[in-house]
Amino acid sequence: MFELYILMVFMIVGAITAVVVKDLLSSVIAVGVTGLALSLTFLVLKAPDLAITQLVVEILCLIILIRATIRKDL
Q: Is pLDDT of 71 > 90?
């Protein structure tokens, strides 16, 4: 049960960092950290199918967001 609280704090810190940081690439990385923590939360809650789906969707979204961020910065 203690792991869930740690992961929840990790997700909250990642989400706040994504909003507060001025650099777009750092913000996208913080969103990725939040998604990874959510995937680990699904694993702790014994829902591996949701964890795998979250991880795949998160990776695809991060690739798209990083490409868009790098293009915007150039």
A: no
